[in-house]
Queue: 3 jobs
Job 1
Amino acid sequence: MGTGGLHLHPMFITIANIDCDIRMKTSSHAWECVAYIPIVDADTFPMHSDFTSILHDRVWHACVDKVVASLKVAAQYGRMMADPRGDLRLAHTLLVGWIADLPEQLMISAVSGACSPSSMATTKGFGDGKVYPPRTGQYTLSKIRALFTNGIDPWDIPRWLNASKAAGLSGVHQPFWRDWPFADPSRFLTPEILHTVHKFFFDHPLNWCKVRVGQPELDARFISMHRRVGFRHFSTGICRVKQLTGREHRDIQRTIVPAIYGAVEPDFVSAMSALIDFFYQAQAPVFTDGSIDDMVRSLELFHSKKQIFLTSGSRAGKRGGMEHFNIPKLGLFPGFAFAIKEMGAIFQYSADVSEKLLGTDAKVPFRSTNHRDFEEQCVRHLDRRDKIRFFHLYTTLKFNGASLQNIISVAKPTVTTLHPASEWLSHVVPGEDRRLGAPRSIRNFFCEQDNIDAQIAHHVTKRPDLPSTTIAAIAVQYQLHDIPAAIGDYLRGVPFDNRLSPRCLEDNDHLPFRFVDLHVWHKFKIQHIASLQPNLILPAQTVKAVPPSISHPWGDCDAVRCELSEEQTKRAC
């Protein structure tokens, strides 16, 4: 983190057995900042860039070694700790995961940039799609011991650095994980979604599309896309923007395949589609053996067709076209399947949380300091912030006569809450949970309908946009002259498959209901329950059905995909 010429590296820690949905929300306070690690600045210590890099890495490992010293002892011998009920238990603090981007993973694993931090792949193997054996911690330590055996002094920097590069090492001679029981970089370095997937897409595949389609044409296609409520519309295109956040990267990924369709070769579309499929499959919240196999097949399909990016000249740099796929992040993708089987769903190992914590636990406290001895002032700021939060919780419970012990409810909640403290207060002191700074809860439209077993909820406003409008007027305003016939077919139960011609209502045919006026809404909200997490209600999405107007000659309507049961299909119109 840069702070106006002053640099520090915050380090955050959490407990692995916290539910991932809670752990991924910074408002849940599931992470703690445990250290501000100094950074070796080349301006302060002018030297060769290689020397700056090796000293920076050594300082980082030495600092982390001191921070986690007690955790190593507890991992080896165990330590009595209180559980949520206050009972003492013997706990072993093992290192099970470390969320970091690729440069930090290389620094942590103590290997050079020409190697993968988690596998035996090297530069020439980054783009071949093969699954390489894991680069275990013992293998890396054996390489370091070999340098000592050869009589090389680790503080003879030029000689040690040359020997380290030849062995595929970074030059760190004492990695912090060397004496941490069961700590292995090939296992605890989890795939990181924000940089490994989304930033990779922005830096490479998106550039291939820009080169092949052409920036003006690609911008025009994104500008002409349909606008949807809740999703960013790139009104000026995507090629002129120099820097985008991870959210914009995700938004572009959603539509990049249809955006390039028709402007590139079919194999280009197939390869890009396979890569996007792999990205989405890798971010699934739940996996089975079959879904992992599908993810692997998508990556294999991409590698089988990726040659089109070279032959078409799409993979190009500042010096022109390239003839290889030696991209370090691309070399991490084959290891996703192994990581999922070892660590579970990898969507939880994204740097989105740490990027936000960087602001709340480092940048914000720094701005409140006088910029002199700011580390101590930042720590005091965090300490007082936590004390205020706990004091507020304590006084709220005591003032309302509630128990200070959060008794876990045996009954399974119908809706998952991602803020434990506010959920606790909502049960014991209703109405006080808002005062804890919890995020605004998602409005649950399922509570407002009669069918409690429904998987979809709809919501409209009290006042319709077109109250008491005749069907004939609706047909004219929406320029859909078969609306009366469509309603009639639906109410009569005419199956869609049996209607082989356009809907047609005879002059002497009357609709089978008594009223003739309908209320019309130009938009409504639809809400789903997560298919793989039945207790999680997703945020509602807005569906538009705006009639044609001067600003929208063809109307402004969203497409909706419906999955119907066999009985519902018979009645579909």
Note: The radius of gyration is 29 Å.
Job 2
Amino acid sequence: MRNIAQLFPRWFAVMIAISVAVIAYGTLQVEPADEAPAPLQHELFDVLWLDKYPEMSHEKWKAYFFSSDNVGISIDAQSAFKLTLELFEFKAESKKIRFHFPHDGRKAQCGYTIEKLKKPTRHFDTKLIVENDPQNAGQTKEYFTGPEFRSAATLPENLRQTLEAHEVLSRLSF
């Protein structure tokens, strides 16, 4: 029986040894992928984000609701009596949200950040900044949320009545 070393040329054995060394070194240097959510990213989901708190029934306001199943609702309120709702799909990554609006096929990718307010207000304690907001003509816009907007049961009465009158609450699962 022939010796195994005689079956392979010496250069081939050297190439195999180098390949094994490179692979071993590479596996030791691999760091875990940075797939972890950004701080506070979990707070994006299943809460109502408003650009301002409507004090009067005739005030205009906008809001987003991002569900944890990647379907959202955009609310454009001209008053308590006229709301425009638009469903959209989205994918939130560490610092980006990709929007898809099926109604007209629009797509957008926007940067976003979530931060706790240094001075919480009566209604809000957290701020969402959406860069190039597709529902705000591509302008950067701030939205806010607080403890009373994290559940339908705790919504302020005037806002809950407006959303119930337009059957919005039945579409939201929070």
Note: Residues 41-165 form a domain with the Lipocalin fold (CATH 2.40.128.370).
Job 3
Amino acid sequence: MCAMVRPVMHAAPGLRVRGGLAAVIATLVLLAGCSAGAEGGADAEASASPSGSGSAAPTETSDPEAPMDANQACAAMYVNGDKTLEERIGAALVGASDGLDVAAADQMHAIAVELGRLEPRVPEEFQGPVEKVRVPFLQLQEALDLGTEQQIELDVASTVEGLKQYQKLC
């Protein structure tokens, strides 16, 4: 088994990411494509459930800290929003690989925060995969917080593995 590790360089005038992510990007695109095809019935079911039940939708939106069941956890990753969380995770990693500027760093931070809010809400069996998905986002945040100018290694393989595990649960 090969570990995919992503080098990142933090430079004072501008942030840069070095190295290629072609294999990781291809895997993320493949995962997104597979989840879109596999979730077709679940998408329709998940989107139909809240509109069919008038009390369910307000409860979800009124308490963003409420625990989720497995269906809600799957919807949070693969259905909700104009762009799903899974797609935004891939886009953030691709954006960082293209050059870690302020916008890419902000996007990585936003995903780290969103995953951090999601983790305690999902059922226990989903929490490990969310932790794995979150690893490179936290690594980058720690490096930025420390103001390090040294190269850091982002463990993108952890994200790929976490997304695979999460998808299996859905």
Note: Helices lie at 22-38, 40-52, 56-62, 70-78, 85-98, 102-118, 124-146, 156-169.
